[in-house]
């Protein structure tokens, strides 16, 4: 029997339940197949072995027969795992599932909540010291480079766990490609599905389509009010137009655009997303560094124009927003006081809660506006485009990774996979308070995915809002031209330098040119410290 | 029973060293050893996950001294100390004087004024976020009733002012407690005599209380200055150093460099430079104090 026939027999045996997963994997390895390939092969096999639900697992759907049998043994009774999470909505989202997993498996989960300003430090102090107090960490995708600095990475691959049908079922092939990259390193899977961040533009559809507003706008700017704005120029005009008057006709002051721009939080993501089409284009994919010599590109002409325009946009919001955290920025929009907000998918999901939102049923969503001219910092040339729109995966895409120091990796994975199971993942992405956004196909409506509008309505969504949101969000994640996501070692530090200097510009402490030059100088120092050649190799690899 | 006479040098000399040993070990273990490590790291390039990758001589020191951000954080810290410590000393001294007069409300006042001292600074900082927030914060709301709109957390001066107000609330009671102990040690005869000669209690305070309580007040000033130079939790929790780095105090910058980004080399160099600066400042302070007390 040849190898192909042997493999076919192996797969058939596994599909029909004649051999177990272990024998299947061992047999596959003997045939020279890698674990990653075997994982892919087991996925359809597992899918064929799936049930919709089982009484032993009320919180999982679909579920494998092996999982059902496994749960009957209360496999993690007496096992306690410690998980460090971000102290914000995503942390709450994780905590929600803890009692459910404990009920099913008999295990116990301790959750430690850490604020974002100390999360990186807390994770890497635990890892570098070897204390191993935590089995898993909720990480931002930009921490990944730091996990892989030591020879033996700080975190473990999850392929072997993922291939085991005794653990909760979830299918990595459901990821949108742009999102999957953030959970992998060198093609191997390390993160377990949780959050899928991208920044889109949210706007008040009712206000933008109001005939009086359209008339006023046309009188002032000489063209029709764009709903939504498609270019940065249109965005600036619309933001300026809606600033400083009571367009909601409720006696309050209206603003054009809300930001959450507090330094040392996540305000710099606004700039990353809004500046992308000034630099990224079909002709250039490099935003941060020149891949040939790792010299910073951040003070290029394109970045400078983007920052000058960003400053104009910031003037279309309250002065105080430069000290606002995420929640405070969102509150302005949810209270009906801002016409637009470029942010994450939390906003439309939070808008569905009538207790905190005045904008349910009034949401519009779109990809980030583009430019008609972009600067290529590699060639040093500006080039005109009809419309240069750029997608992004900016944000944390917060999810958990398993520590190499953990003595309970299997139980830890089981808990994390439990939250990645379709039933729980869908719940997360449709409930704003979990802070989780959709990165999997099954969370989108056809033809992209398999979700139905009824499923959203069941989670109290307004049908129009859900359609707008999913359409807008998907357009960002699937845009043909995507902004790169920096994941080299020291990314947290690189971004911190950008963050403080952008904030200094918004606060009037620095001029845009000086701020970007200062950022570039600081980035050079960081690159030197980590080693230019090592950084260059990893940076280039991130585009492979 | 006849007591044994111990001659000088027989046991005494050894015994006094034995008694000193724990303190010496403490200082060596928790001051000198860490200091040696800090100096060692300050001469090295450190990378998270790899440790020391190279020795770079005085390069870290040169980088710190050439950094605008470092000098800005020193200026912010100096301004913070220069404003908050004098106000805390004046308020703490005045409150201690009034309580020492034996006013009927003084017992209750002692308890109330001492409360902030038992509150964690980081909690006060986060409380400040709630108090000074532009979205429903108590302070902007109250001032708003009077038509006053202060951009507390969105400007450099507003952020520093808010942090200093919280610092004063937190630390005035510390000065109060120390000065009250000093005032209580002054003989009541001196008060009685002074009251006969003076026009009012304020004159007694200025002419008698301040000079006699000066040594203990100096200690309060010294302790507050040293503590305030290390200020971190209140301003960082309140503004995280922003907008930009406009409210970033030295400790916050050193924390970010060393602890957040694991740049032990540069963070250590920063710490050594700051240590030298503070040591120089305290040397001058002590010299002045000795002159006054001589």
CATH topology of the largest domain in chain B: MetI-like fold
CATH architecture of the largest domain in chain A: 3-Layer(aba) Sandwich
Structural class given helices, strands, pairing of chain B? mainly alpha
Question: What is the CATH superfamily classification of the largest domain in chain A?
Answer: Periplasmic binding protein-like II
Lateral strand order in the biggest sheet of chain A: 4-3-5-14
How many domains of chain B? The number is: 2
Indicate the proportion of strand residues of chain B.
under 5%
Q: Please give the CATH class of the largest domain in chain A.
A: Alpha Beta
Describe it for me?
The complex is a heterodimer of chains A (544) and B (294). Chain A is built from 23 helices and 14 strands. Chain A has 544 residues and is α/β, with parallel strands linked by helices. Chain A folds into three domains: 3-49; 63-197 and 395-443, Periplasmic binding protein-like II (D-Maltodextrin-Binding Protein, domain 2), CATH 3.40.190.10; 200-390 and 482-541, 3-Layer(aba) Sandwich (D-Maltodextrin-Binding Protein, domain 2), CATH 3.40.190. In chain A, the strands form five sheets. Chain A has a four-stranded mixed β-sheet. In chain A, helix 1 packs antiparallel against helix 2, helix 13 packs across helix 14 (301-314) and helix 21 (491-506) runs antiparallel to helix 22 (512-530). The longest helix of chain A is centred in the C-terminal third of the chain and has 19 residues, at 512-530. The model of chain A has no long low-confidence stretch (mean pLDDT 93). Chain B has two domains: 12-60, no CATH class; 67-293, MetI-like (MetI-like fold, Orthogonal Bundle). In chain B, strands 1-2 form a two-stranded antiparallel sheet. Chain B has helices spanning 12-42, 59-65, 68-100, 106-114, 121-132, 138-145, 156-184, 188-197, 201-229, 233-239, 250-260, 264-293; strands spanning 44-47, 51-55. Chain B contains twelve helices and two strands, in the order αββααααααααααα. The mean pLDDT of chain B is 91. The radius of gyration of chain B is 24 Å and the shape is flat. At the A-B interface, helix 6, helix 21 and helix 22 of A face helix 11 of B.
């Amino acid at each position: 029997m040849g190898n192909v026939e042997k493999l076919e027999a192996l797969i058939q045996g596994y599909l029909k339940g004649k051999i177990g997963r272990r024998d299947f994997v061992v047999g596959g390895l003997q045939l020279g197949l890698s674990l990653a390939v075997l994982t892919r092969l087991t996925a359809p096999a597992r899918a064929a072995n799936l049930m919709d639900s089982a009484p032993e697992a009320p919180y999982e759907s679909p579920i494998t027969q092996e999982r059902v049998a496994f749960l009957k043994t209360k496999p993690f009774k007496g096992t306690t795992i410690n998980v460090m999470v971000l102290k914000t909505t995503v942390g709450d989202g994780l905590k929600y599932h803890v009692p459910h997993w404990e009920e099913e498996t008999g295990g116990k989960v301790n959750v430690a909540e850490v604020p974002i300003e100390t999360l990186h430090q807390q994770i890497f102090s635990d890892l570098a010291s070897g204390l191993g107090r935590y089995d898993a960490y909720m990480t931002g995708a930009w921490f990944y480079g730091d996990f892989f600095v030591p020879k033996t990475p700080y975190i473990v691959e999850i392929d072997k766990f993922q291939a085991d049908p005794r653990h909760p079922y979830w299918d990595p092939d459901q990821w949108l490609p742009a999102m999957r990259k953030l959970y992998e390193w060198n093609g191997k899977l390390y993160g377990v599905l949780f959050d899928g961040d991208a920044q889109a533009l949210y706007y008040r559809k009712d206000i933008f389509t109001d005939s009086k507003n359209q008339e006023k706008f046309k009188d002032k700017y000489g063209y029709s009010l764009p709903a939504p704005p498609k270019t940065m120029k249109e965005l600036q005009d619309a933001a300026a137009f809606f600033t400083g008057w009571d367009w909601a006709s409720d006696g309050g002051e209206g603003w054009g655009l809300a930001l959450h721009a507090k330094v040392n939080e996540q305000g710099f993501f606004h700039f990353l997303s809004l500046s992308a089409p000034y630099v990224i284009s079909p002709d250039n994919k490099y935003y941060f560094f020149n891949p040939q010599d790792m010299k910073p590109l951040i003070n290029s002409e394109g970045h400078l124009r983007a920052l000058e325009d960003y400053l104009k946009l910031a003037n279309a919001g309250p002065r105080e927003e430069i000290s606002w955290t995420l929640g405070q920025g969102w509150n302005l929009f949810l209270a009906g006081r801002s016409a637009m907000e470029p942010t994450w998918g939390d906003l439309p999901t939070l808008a569905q809660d009538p207790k905190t939102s005045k904008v349910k049923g009034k949401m519009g969503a779109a990809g980030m506006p583009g430019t008609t001219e972009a600067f290529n910092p590699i060639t040093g040339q500006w080039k005109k485009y009809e419309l240069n729109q750029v997608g992004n995966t900016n944000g944390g895409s917060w999810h958990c990774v398993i520590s190499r120091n953990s003595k309970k990796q299997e139980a830890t994975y089981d808990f994390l996979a439990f939250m990645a199971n379709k039933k729980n993942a869908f719940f997360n992405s449709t409930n704003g308070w979990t802070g989780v956004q959709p990165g999997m196909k099954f969370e989108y409506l056809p033809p992209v995915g398999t979700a139905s509008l009824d499923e959203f309505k069941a989670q109290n969504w307004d049908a129009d809002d859900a359609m707008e949101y999913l359409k807008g969000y998907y357009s960002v994640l699937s845009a043909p031209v995507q902004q790169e996501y920096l994941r080299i070692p020291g990314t947290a530090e690189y971004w911190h330098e950008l963050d403080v200097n952008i904030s200094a510009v918004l606060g009037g402490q620095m001029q845009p040119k000086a701020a970007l030059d200062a950022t570039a100088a600081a980035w050079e120092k960081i690159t030197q410290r980590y080693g230019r050649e090592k950084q260059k190799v990893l940076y280039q690899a991130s585009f492979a | 029973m006849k007591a044994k006479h111990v001659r000088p040098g027989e046991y005494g000399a050894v015994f006094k060293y034995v008694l000193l040993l724990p303190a010496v070990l403490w200082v060596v273990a928790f001051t000198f050893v860490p200091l040696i490590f800090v100096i060692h790291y300050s001469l090295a390039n450190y990378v998270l996950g790899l440790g020391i990758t190279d020795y770079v001589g005085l390069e870290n020191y040169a980088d710190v001294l050439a950094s605008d951000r470092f000098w800005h954080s020193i200026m912010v810290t100096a301004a913070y100390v220069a404003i908050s410590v004098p106000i805390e000393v004046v308020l703490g001294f005045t409150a201690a004087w009034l309580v020492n007069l034996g006013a009927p409300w003084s017992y209750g006042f002692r308890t109330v004024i001492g409360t902030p001292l038992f509150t964690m600074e980081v909690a006060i900082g986060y409380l400040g976020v709630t108090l000074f927030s532009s979205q429903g914060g108590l302070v902007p709301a109250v001032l708003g009733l009077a038509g006053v709109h202060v951009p507390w957390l969105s400007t450099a001066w507003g952020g520093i002012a808010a942090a200093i107000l919280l610092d004063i609330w937190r630390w005035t009671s510390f000065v109060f407690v120390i000065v009250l102990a000093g005032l209580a040690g002054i003989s009541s005869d001196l008060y009685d005599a002074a009251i006969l000669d003076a026009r009012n209690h304020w004159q007694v305070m200025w002419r008698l209380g301040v000079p006699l309580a000066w040594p203990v007040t100096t200690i309060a000033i010294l302790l507050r200055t040293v503590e305030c130079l290390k200020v971190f939790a209140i301003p960082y929790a309140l503004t995280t150093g922003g907008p930009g780095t406009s409210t970033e105090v030295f400790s916050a910058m050193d924390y970010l460099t060393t602890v957040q980004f694991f740049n032990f080399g540069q963070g250590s160099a920063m710490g050594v430079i700051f240590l030298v600066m503070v040591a120089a400042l305290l040397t001058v302070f002590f010299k002045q104090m000795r002159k006054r007390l001589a």
